[in-house]
Write a structure and sequence with these properties.
It is a single chain. By secondary structure, the protein is mainly alpha-helical. 73% of the residues lie in helices and 4% in strands. The protein is built from 24 helices and four strands. The radius of gyration is 29 Å and the shape is globular.
């Protein structure tokens, strides 16, 4: 009896501590984005507490996720990558795979800050896959936001708007998961949409979403400062000069909220750019000199390169052309050494415009050619990153198939059967005849049966689908794509289901296994209305295999700018929309839809 009382007392003592730790971590989630310097102090204190007291693995991992995000907010990208890699390794060891996407997102964000797109894209792709698999809307929202920002920066606007629309739609569901980890402020999601619309020169809609971000309840501290800073720029280009001055003044008032020198330096750089465009040259130079000193002290090479370009533009505005050209040549040299081709494209554009104004058309043309070359290299880098991303997905599928295939037998059949030579010879002859008969029947059956596209090599499938898309674009005829998630169907049942689906399709239609749980169907010469009729036929075929759960098939009709990836993404969004409708979730209005 005394032992029971002791255990009960211990539980009553530990429960408040556990609840307190969870509350502290929840409060830290917002603090990490709003006041990162204050958050770092609390994280350090909690790390000391966790080393001296019994703490669950989940709380330790969550604190690592928060620390990783906190380091990003403070500009400590290398430290964030180290924390993320260690955290992901611990998550694998503890078999807590649901936390892995948060560490992958942290690594991807740090790589994007280094402009290392080739590393960031596969990390984001893996994070989105894991977030969907383990039902982590908090991770999914953040990964979609980052990928949307990346696509905005690389002018891939159709893909960016799909990701950001989906992020806005699923943001209200972030607290439906059983365990909280970390999630971005809603204000940042609206700000990302505002930046996308600003990049497409839709300034009124850009202001609409940016104002939504300003009005968000989580827009405080650094978050509010960044959005006000962006809003001042958008309002200026939208010819709202007084409103831009008002927003800029509010942003400056929040500068003391930024606790680290790097945060201040990045903000001073943006404010210097705004002041330059407003003609306030002295203010722009003052802000930029503070930022450059900080970047030098912290060895921020990319930031130094971009600040040098901005200082050159200030010198041009001051009619100090020789000093400006020296600075621009230095910035170009830095960009070439760092292989920052997207920045280099802009630098060459500035030089070309300058020489054009001076009437030196030969130099202007020379830098214009260099600009086009830099643009080609930047696009080539993006294409290479996306091809590597696609190959990584294919390799992952191959590994999963290899793991499910039986291991080769080490001992021969004759050794296992332990027969003598005469019986072995007869046995081999009989098996050869039987094998020949089976091969003949299978070959005959295969000649009759339609081919399943998913059985072909992945490279052949990609070529065929790409060819089908190109033919549809060149021939100006419609093409639709269907996406079906087969996660609720047993793997052993998928081959016969594919057979049945293929019998329902036309000869020119293509059915492929895009991943372990996704089936993609390409329908040439088929509009969205025709695709819906095909879906109705396929649902009747799939339903017996799936049981009582509702069959949802996503539809996407090809547009001229579409690729296979963007088609599949839109079909996935369409499928998710059907799932939400079937679950009677409320719809959220968005003017960008």
């Amino acid at each position: 009896m005394d032992f029971r009382v002791l255990v009960l007392s211990l539980l009553l003592w530990l429960l408040p501590f556990g609840a307190s730790a969870i509350d502290q971590l929840d409060e830290l989630t917002e603090l990490v984005y709003q006041y990162p310097s204050k958050a770092l102090t609390q994280i350090t204190a909690l790390e000391k507490q966790f080393t001296t007291r019994a703490t669950s693995d989940i709380n330790r991992l969550r604190l690592s996720v928060l620390k990783c995000q906190n380091l990003l907010q403070l500009g400590e990208n290398e430290a964030a990558i180290n924390v993320a890699q260690l955290g992901e390794a611990n998550a694998k060891q503890l078999k807590l795979d649901q936390v892995r996407p948060y560490f992958l997102i942290c690594q991807a964000d740090a790589n994007l800050n280094y402009n290392n797109i080739q590393n960031a894209l596969p990390l984001l792709d893996s994070a989105i896959t894991l977030a969907r698999r383990y039902q982590q809307p908090q991770a999914l929202v953040d990964a979609l936001r980052l990928r949307g920002q990346l696509d905005t920066d690389t002018d891939n606007f159709s893909s960016a708007i799909e990701d950001l629309r989906l992020a806005i739609d699923i943001y209200p569901d972030i607290h439906t998961q059983t365990q909280n980890w970390v999630w971005p402020p809603q204000a940042y999601i609206y700000a990302a949409m505002g930046n996308l619309l600003y990049a497409t020169h839709d300034f009124p809609q850009a202001m609409y979403y940016t104002n939504l971000g300003i009005q968000s309840p989580d827009a405080e501290g650094k978050v509010l400062h960044i959005i006000l800073r962006n809003a001042a720029r958008i309002a200026l280009d939208n010819q709202e000069f007084d409103y831009s001055d008002q927003l800029e003044k509010q942003a400056k008032a929040l500068l003391p909220e930024l606790g680290s020198p790097l945060e201040l330096a990045y903000s001073y750089t943006i404010l210097a750019s705004i002041s330059l465009d407003k003609g306030r040259i002295d203010a722009a130079e003052e802000y930029l000199s503070i930022a450059i000193n900080t970047f030098k002290k912290h060895n921020q090479q990319l930031a130094m390169m971009r600040s040098t370009r901005l200082l050159a533009q200030i010198r041009f505005a001051q009619h100090q052309d020789d000093a400006a050209l020296t600075l621009m040549n230095h910035a170009i040299e830095q960009a070439e050494n760092l292989k920052q081709y997207s920045d280099l494209k802009g630098f060459y554009g500035i030089m070309s415009d300058h020489y054009l104004e001076q009437g030196d058309f030969k130099q202007a043309y020379s830098f214009l050619l260099k600009r086009y070359r830099a643009a080609e290299l930047a696009n080539q880098g993006m294409n290479t990153a996306r091809i590597l991303q696609f190959k990584a997905r294919l390799n992952q599928q191959d590994l999963q198939q290899d793991q499910t295939s039986p291991a080769p037998e080490k001992a021969s059949i004759l050794q296992e059967l332990n027969l003598d030579w005469a019986y072995s010879t007869l046995f081999l002859i009989a098996m050869t005849l039987l094998g020949g008969a089976i091969w003949y029947l299978i070959d005959k059956q295969n000649n009759r049966a339609p081919r399943i596209e998913g059985e072909e090599p992945a490279e052949t499938l990609l070529q065929q689908v790409t060819s089908a898309l190109n033919s549809a674009k060149q021939g100006n005829y419609p093409l639709s794509l269907l996406l079906f998630n087969a996660s609720q169907i047993r793997q052993v049942d998928l081959p016969p289901l594919q057979d049945q689906l293929q019998h329902r399709l036309r000869e020119q239609d293509k059915l492929i296994r895009y991943s372990m749980d996704e089936i993609v169907i390409i329908l040439p010469h088929t509009s969205a209305a025709g695709a819906k009729k095909v879906v109705n036929q396929l649902v009747a075929c799939i339903q017996p295999w799936q049981g009582s759960s509702k069959v949802n098939i996503g539809i996407a009709a090809m547009q001229h700018f579409d690729t296979l990836e963007s088609l599949i993404k839109r079909a996935s969004i369409n499928q998710l929309g059907k799932v939400k409708i079937s679950e009677n979730n409320p719809n959220h209005y968005s003017p960008a839809k």
